Amino acid sequence: MCSDANDDFGATKLRDAMIDETQPKPQIIEAFHDYAPPFDATKIVGRMLRDVPRQFLLGLDSIVLTNVAALSRQERERKTRRRERRITLGEARGYYGQAWKGELARITILLDNFEKRFGRSWLRIGIVRDLDFSELLFHELGHHIHRMQRPEYEGRENVADNGARNYRAATFEAVIGTSSL
Question: How far apart are CA 69 and CA 119, in angstroms?
Answer without folding.
Answer: 18
